[in-house]
Every structure is written in C-alpha cells, then in structure tokens.
Fold each of these.
Amino acid sequence: MSGFFKSSIGRKYAMALSAFFLMIFLLQHFAINMLSVFSPEAFNETSHFMGTFWAVQYLLQPVLIFGVIYHFVMGFILEARNKGARVSKYAKNNGAANSSWMSRNMIYSGLAILAFLVLHFIDFWIPEINTKYIQGDMTGLLADGEGFRYYEELTHKFVSPLRVGAYVVAFIFLSLHLMHGFSSAFQSVGATSMRKKKLQTFGKAYAVIIPLGFIIIALYHHFNH
Amino acid sequence: MVDYKVTDISEHMSFLEMMDVLNEQLVNQGEEPVAFDHDCREGICGMCSMYINGEAHGPDRGVTTCQLHMRMFKDGDTITIEPFRAKAFPVIKDLVVDRSSFDRIQHAGGYISVNTSGNTQDANAIPISKYAADEAMDAATCIGCGACVASCKNASAMLFVGAKVSQYALLPQGRIEAVDRVKNMVAQMDLEGFGNCTNTGACEIECPKGISLENIARMNREYLSANIKD
Amino acid sequence: MSVLDSKVPKGPLKTKWTDYKDHINLVNPANKRNIDVIVVGTGLAGGSAAATLAELGYNVKTFCYQDSPRRAHSIAAQGGINAAKNYQGDGDSVYRLFYDTVKGGDYRSREANVYRLAEVSANIIDQCVAQGVPFARDYGGLLDNRSFGGVLVSRTFYAKGQTGQQLLLGAYSAMNRQIARGKIVPYNRHEMLDVVKVDGKARGIIARNLVTGELERHSAHAVVIASGGYGNLYFLSTNAMGSNATAAWKIHKKGAFFANPCYTQIHPTCIPRSGDYQSKLTLMSESLRNDGRIWVPKNIEDVKAIREGRKKPTDLSEDERDYYLERRYPAFGNLVPRDVASRAAKERCDAGYGVNATGEAVYLDFASAIERYGKEQAKIHNIQNPSAAKIYELGKAIIEAKYGNLFQMYEKIVDENPYETPMMIYPAVHYTMGGIWVDYNLMTTIPGCYAIGEANFSDHGANRLGASALMQGLADGYFVLPYTIGDYLSNEIRTGKIPTDTPEFDEAEKSVQDKIDFFISNNGKHSVDYYHKKLGKIMWDKCGMSRNAQGLKEAASEIKELREDFYKNVSVPGTANELNSELEKAGRVADFLELGELFAKDALLREESCGGHFREESVELEGEQKGEAKRNDAEFAYVAAWEYKGEPSEAVLHKEQLEFNEIELKQRSYK
C-alpha cells in the first residue's frame, strides 16, 4: 500500500472516506438536534451523555476534528493541483453544458461551510470546551443549578435573526455540497451502484432533507422563543 | 485571439470543411492558414481536437469535430475556437496540441504481454461471456482524442485511463497483469501532470464515443485491490 | 526472362510456406541486437511488423505522420477481418479462402502469396484474441462471424463496426510493449521524404520532423514501407486526409517498381457527395449489405418525383422498385463483390435513375430486414399476433444492435433517419490494389527495401474482397515479413552500424531540402488543394469506375499539363521551419501528380476488364453475361510492374506472368 495515498486515485479514496465519516456524523448530529424540537428533556440528556462520555470526548471527537481538517486540507490541496493542471484558461468555457454547478464549485460551497464551521465553533464548541475543561464544570447544569444547560444555550443562540440567517445560508451551501458530494464519494470508492438510480436518488434526498432539517430546527427555535 | 470572417458556408458542411474554406481564403490572400489537427474525418482516428464555443468537439453530442455539421450553428454566428487546454497537452501551434502524454501512459502498461508469434492457443479456447466482451468493447471504443481532459475542469485523464484499464480488466487475458497494469498506468498518468477527477461527469457527456464514468469507478476499484494485493 | 524474379519457392502449393520457413536463413538472437530496421507507417501492417521485429530482437524505428501510431487509417476499417477458422461449420477451409480471394481478385494475384495469406489467417485471430481484442461473441461465449460480399460462407470476425480500430489498437498495444522495453523508438509527426541507398541497398531514410520542420537522417539495415495506398489521388476518397503515396513514390523513384497502379477499388456503400466543398467521403461498412437491399425506382417518373421532393422513397410499392442487384445476380444478390456492386450502381445512375439531387445515389433499404428480424424476435419472445408496430420495434432493436453506430453516423452526416427512410449510398474510391511490386519475401526491387500492407501490389489482384485488407496487413506484419526479412538480414550481421554522415545521405537530404525550399519560395497564385481537386476530377472522370482508351489518353496528358502548372503556380505560405500543413500537402500532391499519370498509362495498356479496372471496350457482347466485364487471360494475365525513368510517360514496363496451377481461370459469375 506504500504510496497509495500519494497517488491521484488514493487521494480520491481519502476524500471519499473522510466524506463518508462526515456524512455519518452529520446524520447523528441532525438526529440529536431534532430531539430539541420534540423533547427538550431528551435533547438535554443526550447532549449531556455525548458531552461527558469518555469514548465520545476522547476518541470520536479528535477523530471528527481530524476528519474535518483532513477533508478541508485535502480539498484545498486537490483544488490547487487541479487548477495547476490547466495553466492557460479557456477564453470561452461552457461548463453548464456538461456538468452541474454543484460539481464544478465544490471548493466554494466547501469554503462557505468552513466559514460556518468557524462561527459554529465560536458559538458552541469553544464555550463547551471552556466550561468543561478550563473551568472544570462537568455537571452540564445551568448556573443556577436548575436542570441541564444545553437546551437553554441552544435556544439562546437562535434569538438573533442575523445568526439564524447565516445558519440558513450555510445549510443551503451544505445542501449544494452534498448534492454532488454524496454520489461523488460513492463513485470515488468505485461503487458500481453509483450508476444506478436508487443510490443517486437517495443521495439527492439526503442532500436536501438533512440540511433542510437543520434549517427547520433553527427557524423553529427562532420563532418559538 | 484572431477574428476571421468566413463566407459561403453550407449547412451540410462539416466543421472542418468550414475550416478548409477559411484556410483556402487565407492562402488565396497570401496569409498563413490556421493549423489544426485532423485526419480520418469520420470520427474514428481521434486526431481532431477543437474546443468550440466552450465545449470539446462543439455543441453536438456523440461526435468529434470532423462529424460536427454547420447546421448546428446559425448564419452569422461568431464561433469561438480554441485548442484543447491542459498542462499535459502543450500547444504546438494554433489549434494543434501535443497529446503524447496519452501515448506514454499506454507505454506504461496498455498491453497484454503476449508474443506476436501467433503460437497462442486457439481463439475459442477461453469462452468469454458476451456481456464481458461487449463491455470490454465499449471501453475499447475510446479514440484517445483527449476531449475528456479538455472538458474536465481539472484536466483529468481518468476517463481515458479508466477506459484502457477497464478493457483489459474485463477480459480474462488481461487479468494476469492487472495489478501491475493499473499501478503503472496510474503512476504515469500522475507523472504527466493531469488533474484529479472530481466526478463532475463532464468527460462522459463530451466523449464522442460515450465512454461511461463506470470505467473510472472500475479503475478505482482495480487500483485499490492492486494496492491491497501488493 | 524478365528482370522480375518473384522468388516463389518450388514445391506443392499447400506446403510451400512451411517448407520455405523451414529452410530460410535465421539471425542469431545476439546478432539481432546489432541490426536496425526502419518501419514507415504504423497501421496494421507497419504496427504489427514493428512490434514483431522488435520482439524478435531487432532495433526498430517507426515513423508516422500522425501524432500517435494508433491513428493510422487502418483504424477506420469497419466491417471485419476474414479468417479460415470454420467456426461456423459452414464448409470453410484454407483452400476456400484462398480460392475466394483469387477469384474475387479476378485472377490477377500471385497464387502462392494468396495461399500463404489464407494459411496464416487463422493465426491472426488467435493472436488478436490473446492481445485482448474484444471481438464480438455469441451468448455461448465463442466468437461470432458475419458474412461479406463475394463469398458463400461466414468467416468474417468483427468488433462492432470498429474492427479496424480494435485490431490497430491491438497492434499498437504490441508496439507499446516494445516501446516500453526500448526496442521500438517511435518517431511520430514525422514524414519520410526519401530513401537512402548505399551500394544499391536501402540503408536509411530522410524524414522531416513535422513540428520543427527539421530534416533528420536515420540509417538502418533494412527499410520497410507500410504507408498504405494512394486512394487520395482522387482527392475525394474514403482515405484519411493525410493518407499519401509519398513514401511509396519516393522508393519507386529510387528503383522500386510500381505494379498495377490502375487497380483501384471503388467501394459501393459510401455516403453520396453533397457539394463541391466536400473534403472526403465516408464509407458505410459493407456489412450493411448483409441486411440492406439496394434499389432504385423502376419508373423514371418516380425518380423525378423523388428528386423534386414530391414523393418519398417509402411511398413506392414493392413492384415500383427495381432491386437491380437481386435482379441481375440472383445467386449473390446484394452480396456481390464490391466492383460488381459499384458498377451496377453507376449503370443505374448513368441511366438516369439516381435518387438524389446530384443524380448519384441509390437506396439501401432496411425495411424488410427490420420486418424479418421483428417477426423472428416475436417468435423468440413468444408474442402471439404481434402488431406491425411491435414487429418494427423488435426488428429495429436488432438492426440497431448490429449497425447502430453506422446508422448514427449516417444520420449525423445526412440529417435523415435511416431507420425510417432508406439510406442513400454511392460508390467512392476506397482502396488501391496496386502498389509497390514485391517478391514472395515482400522485398521490392531495391535490396533491403520491403513493402507490406496496402502499400504493396499485394494479394488482392484486381479487386479486394471485403474484410481482406485487415487480414493482409496483419498477415504481412505479424507472420510473413518477420520471417522473410531474416533471410536478407542474415547477410548483414557483420555490417555494423550504418553511418549517416556519408555522401549518400548528404545527397538525399540536399534533394529533399531543395524541394522544400522550392515550394516555400515559389510565390504562386493557387493553393495546393486547388491542384489536388483538379487532379481528383480528372481521375474520377477518366480513370474512375469505367475507363476507355480515349479518356485515359486525355487523362495522361491533362495530368502532365496540370503538373507543369503546379510547379509554376503553386503557393505555399509560411516557412519550412515550423508545423506547415500546406507544405506537407504540397509534397504529397506533387507525388500524386506523377503517380496519376503512370496510373493512366497503366490503365491504357490493360485493354481488358478485370476487377476494379473496367474497360468499356472489353465487355461480354452476348449470352447470359452480356454487358458484364470481359477479362482477357491470354494477353493480360500478368502483373504490370513499372520502372521509373524520369517522366512517368517514360516508365518502362516489366511483366510478371501469373501462373495458376491450383485454380482454373474462369469468368467470375455471381449470377
């Protein structure tokens, strides 16, 4: 296997595998967020479990962070190389004639998602780390000690219309990214069935339903609080 | 970019016949004609290679430039013609590009190591299922024109290499060297400076022979299994 | 005794080649490493020869004007390749293939060569399958066959409608293997512009790098010419735009005799011309005649109505149609040989029955095949009382599977759907049976200079059968030349590397340079194409599908005049030190302008009708064969080999008498 991940095809596999991981993560993130709409209690309990269970915190979380960074860095490296494979540009190029906008602009949808992730980290992840590991408060309770803090924090974030707007835009980009990325990842790992309609339809559904769900959650909390 | 005006064009002309008329006009005016690659003019040699109005081999589907007819355009249109552009396809002159990188990829493994003595076994000794033979034929139909590279936003050659790898991978004769073949051809492809495939599918749409993306998927599988076996 | 020695070995026909191989001189493997061979042209013949010679151990250099060996025009062959495998069990054998080829060639080929060709044909299929050529197969996994014109068995192997492409890619892959080993050095985008002779032997070539314009000297112990035919003499042909006779003509000028230049094949199923701007003609595989029926309207009124657009071909009922091939040749019907089918189309069109605006087109109709296949499929799928629409749908699917790519090509060019309306076809120049004279070893009259494939005068006599060109190219390259060249090279093991800084190379390069300088500085007023088109028109009008003494004499003198005008008034823009396609064309047309005159001279001399050469003065006057071509074996059963003496008109004729021991000479009857 030496040199596999240095080859063009090896990198495709790497991109696809990190994408699969991120897509699965996205699914579980979505499922937990959805709880906040139906049952704040369940949401709180699950969040507390995820936030304090050692395997999640010390195993999955680093893997996730690595996966995210890897996917982005590799994406940038590939983009730079691919740009370099055509030194002089076409004077006239009709890309729309043979490929989707999404497939041609993964780097831009990716950048939009990256910008969102920065906001997301500032909003949630950094405060979490601060609370748990710097201040050492692993209780997950509100400052007054009346129940878990997770649901309160969540709803609090969706008060500002500006922030909600940014979330909505970011998830639209995520949808565009997934619209190509889902089936592309399957094609990259050589899945024959990528050619079959079912998987493509499933991919499209995933790319629409998951981001749309996140948007609905954000809007739900915005208008209910 | 130079603007030329060309008159007396019939809708039944092929695109290259229109270029002939243009060049005839230029020669008669004592100017140098526009250099372009062409040969068989029936869509099989893969020599013609123009990027017409932003698409490899122009706006029609399933054809090479020599089979593109002027009826695809309107009278009075301005048509933008460029060479295929890729780092691995340096321009030689005007619309002529150097595609020898494709040849070098094939030198790296585009063959079955069998002596040309004719003393092989009988052609019918190994039955091959019609489906496998037909699928191999579909991959082998590639004419090596480079439209896939030209159309790909990354100037990737994976459709071409995928087709070559697939043809042999699908036939029992080709299985014997499958591991080395895919590794060597992919290594050479990377060395030539082609970009990486991002599965936009542009190559499949613009391919004059309709080579399927499935060939890239197959190459990816072959490459993975070759690396695992090694 | 003629100066021509065919060197056909003695002994019974059936064992000649085997016995000959058993006694031929061989070169020790260690010595092969010290011997260089140049191969000009990388089509089926050149590509397969280069690969095999390199594999044997010789150092090979290949030259082609295309940007890759894989683009040689063999790639455009569609229909298939013949081989006496008898996989179908329909009575085929080596002898039958041999017999059909000699008969199809109208008894103007060398018996021993053709027998050898038939013998090695089966090996070609084995070889190609081993190389990974994806031939069509049946559901049992075995190789499929189809039948072609002029024969009564199914012996044609095919890969969709792209057999030539697949075989060439096979040969190219064999080349790739040798290129990777360093045994072949490919010189692509190079054109051979002269052969260099030292002490009477071919010792190298002068080639122009078509990208930089630089002239290069390459030496070798033997030079193999595999540069194809000269169909582009006619300007409009099914050949590639770059196909040319320059390599063949240059060796002719240095002493290689040119044989039977008048034998040209006009292929019956091409897409008709649509206007004066036309740059080339497109062939539709002859395999279409397996299922297509050729016809013109019976009544001249219907012809007029169709031309004026008042009627459509589909409006005509069965009894208003003249299926003239089925009428004239009931035994072979639409599957008569190419020359017969072409002339029959010309006969109908000359009589005024041509169905398009130019009056030069006949119909090729698939309606009855679609119906026949549709009914058959309905039975297979157990559909009771199928509707006409269902039958059409089922039948169309079969036709699409068999000829889909051809139908699509037709539709792109003509803008008509051939599933719904009959195709229009007309004959076009396709292949040249004539070429450089070679002996049994495939050596020309220049020692050490070989000619293979379409470039030699070959095994097809006066007419080539369908699917035989691929067979001959690969037979020469894979299985004949690699043996026979060893006989010559066994005397070269002590020669050592041949230097290129000798007076012979100086002189050859200078003459090439002078010619290039002449074209660049000529400042004439007409483009090269202007002359090429004029030459093509003379050839088509006077040396086309039928020829007569008057026309041929006119052709010879008109070509001479045209050549003189060419040298005075041709204009080649640009410089010599760059990619300059006008300069390339100028050199090629200059050679065509000489070859064309020799062609007319040869055709005038041959006062008989044979194969592709039809003399209006020589037809059967009575009996069942009335109006058919009349061959004259008593006077013309020879190969006409021409020796260059300056002007084409001064060329000297040498005859190689053809002897037939195994086959009785008969009139070809396809009735």
Amino acid sequence: MARNCIVVNLDRCTGCFGCEVACKMENGVALGERWSKVFTVGPVGEYPDMTRYALPTMCQQCENAPCVSVCPTGASYRDANGVVLVDKEKCIGCKYCMMACPYGVRSWNVAEKCAEKCTLCGHLTSQDKLPACVKSCAAGARFYGDLDDPNSDVSKELAKYSEGDIHTLQDVGNAPATRYIMTSMIGQWQDRIAPADHPHTAAYPVAE
Amino acid sequence: MEIQWSLVLFTALSGAGAWLVACAGLDAFKGLAKKAVVPAVIAGIVLIVVGGIASATHLSHVDRIMAVLAHPAPGIFLEALLLGIDVVVAAAFLVLYKRNASEGVLKGLGIAAVVMAAVFSYACGSSYMMSSQLAWNTIALPLGYLGTALAAGTALWYLLCAVFKEEAAALSFAATEVLIGAVAALVTSLAYGFMAGVTGGDSAVLFWVGVVVCGGVVPLACGVFGMKKTDGALPLAVVAVAGAFIGSVAFRMLMWIASIALMSLFGVGI
C-alpha cells in the first residue's frame, strides 16, 4: 500500500503561512477551524547556538493511525491509496479520534458537527494535480508523494539528505509518515518544548 | 479538556448499576437478603440503561449510531456490547429469581453478573487509554473506573438492604461488601493519582477531598461501622452511597480535568 504524505523541507520554509491560507481557500475551511497550521518553534538555546524555525503541521498520515483504530463507526478510515480520511456521513461526533490523535491535528466542523482533517487534497491528487499547500508553497519547501516510490517527489527530496537531517513529529507508536527535513544550517530539531520553560516562545503546545 | 458530563454520568451510573446487580447476584451464594434482591436488580438495570442513554447525549449524530455495529473493534462498541450483555444477565437473573429457579442456576448467573460488572466497569476506563493522552495512558485508569464503580454499587446494595430492613446478617455482609468496594476505590484511585501525577496542583482538592476522602475513606468508615453494628444501618448506608457516588463522579471529572495531550497543535478543545 502506498504511503502518500507531505514532506516539508524546513531548510527552505520561510514561515510565510501561505500553505495554511491555501488549505483554507481550497477546502473551504471555516473561520476558526483549520486543517493546517504553521508553528514558530523557538527561539531555544543559548546565544549564539540558538534555534528558531517554522513548522508547518497537518495530519501526519500515521501508519498506525490511532484515529482510525478508535473510530466506532469506521468514519475514520484508510482509503485504497493508504490515505487516512474521514467519511463525514458516518461520523457520529464522539470526538474519540480527536482525543486519540497524538498531535491534535484534527478539526471539529461546527456547522456539520463532525470531525474532519487534511485530506491531502485527494480531489486534486486524483487528477494528477498537487495538493493546494504544495502547489502554493512559494519557497518550494513542500512535496507530495509516495514514500515507497523512489521516483516520487518526496522520495527524491529525501534522498538528498542524510538520515540525521530527516525528522518526524514525536512518535508514540503511531509511526507518522510525514517527514521534515532540517539540517544544522537551521538549528537543532526540537521534539517538544515545554511552554512553561519558554514563556516567550510560540512552541509546541503540550497541554490544553 | 472540558469535562464530558455525558460520559462521566454514563460510566458512574452504569458502573454502579452493574455492581448493584453483581451484589444481588452474589447473594445467591449466601441467601441472606430476602427483600432487596428484586428491587436491586431492577434498580441496577435502570441505572445501566440510564447511563447508556446518558452516553448517547454527547454524540452530535445519534441517528448514525447503528454504524457502530459494522465496526466492532473500538472501545465504544465494546462498552455498548458489554452493557447489553450485562442487562441481559440481570434480566435473566431477575426472571429466574422470581420463578424460584434452582440454586445452581442462580449461582451461575450471580457469577456471570460479578464477572460482567468487573469487565464492563474496567472496559469503560480502558477505552481512554491512548498514547496521545499522557495522564490517561496507564492501567491505573481503568482499574480506578472499576474500583470506584464497585464502591458505588456495593454502597447502593447496602442502602437497599437497609431500606428493605433486611436481617442483621444480610446488613452486616452488605457492609462488608461496602468495605471491600471502598478499599478497591481507595487503592485504585490512589494508584491512578500518583501514576498520572494528579495529586497536586489544581487537581489536588478534587483528588484528595472528592476522590480519596468522599469516595474511599467515607464508605470505608461506613463499612467498618456497619459490619459491627447493624442498628441504624440506613443513615450509614445513605452516607456511604453519597460518598461513593461523589468519589466516583469526582474520579471521572478528574480524568478530564487532568488530561495532558502529547501535543495539541491546533488547540481544538474537546
């Protein structure tokens, strides 16, 4: 089964929020809701060894997706292309998928009263087009494709870097497919930052 | 995370109902209670059903609930299945008890009721064990669900025995059951509190006063007194029920209040 996902090259990302806007525009995501969000991680460290980088986030297309396994109706499912999706017609609104998502990257559609999330723009990729966030990325930092296909855009981009420069969000057994490329040129990859220790930074929120 | 009252009431009521039925079923072995068995089983069924209905009120599309049947793996399906089985066991016990069925049959159903109560109340908590929720992903959580439900169910049984003026031996044994339930609630709640790190900070009052004192110490004291002295069992039982229910609800409130997401990148509240 294909492992379609987004790869983000943080060495290139300028943190312009263009992907976030493009996602909202393409998918008609309501005000106050989001399928995609760009974080500013840091600054952390001591001068002159400091790190600060933009981190675009969205559904990480986990291989062992907890949202799929907890869904009582099968509304959260993996399609034939291996993409984790939500069938909103089946969603009963129990929000278990939102609790189970390790990254909190699911959204609650207030109008339709159901859970939803990034679809990897399946309506575009099925027509051999790129997801809106990838197409709109002004810095050419975002890539879409199958990790198992050596000729895909994601595999080609990842092949340029050593393993130490390729990261995922913290894996708690869910095996996120999304990869982030970041070299020492930008700084040190941060698995998580406790906001309490860094009150002046917008970091990974760890608690609600 | 916000307290999901529908789910708090579901597991508190249904869990207590299941253990109330279990206590009535257990009496098939002792034969001490004469008048409280039938009302206890009926009350237990009502509590289980009312709890089940309460759980459905947190869904935004209840009309699609039948889709659950097509996807039998997750915790919600398991909870619904166990709830249904528990009601069937309770109803069967009630009918056969009323028809004076053989002792062996009633004992068999009594064992089934105890097993179902344990499995059901544990399963209600195990649904929340998720690697994404740092304060939930411990086996102490479902054990706490089991322990607090056991305390509430046994206290209710003690209350019904007192209301229906059962004999001293029945009251004393019911108080012993309250003691066992209270110890279970106390041990499992403390285990959860320390394992999940919710014994201090903002959760401290709710944990120590609501869960530990009301849910554990109060019914424990009632059980100890009730075992020794069967006169005046009713007020003791009322206090035990009040304490155990406050503790059971407080434990479930604490779970929601103390939840710590691994990450909540979009900051969406639940």
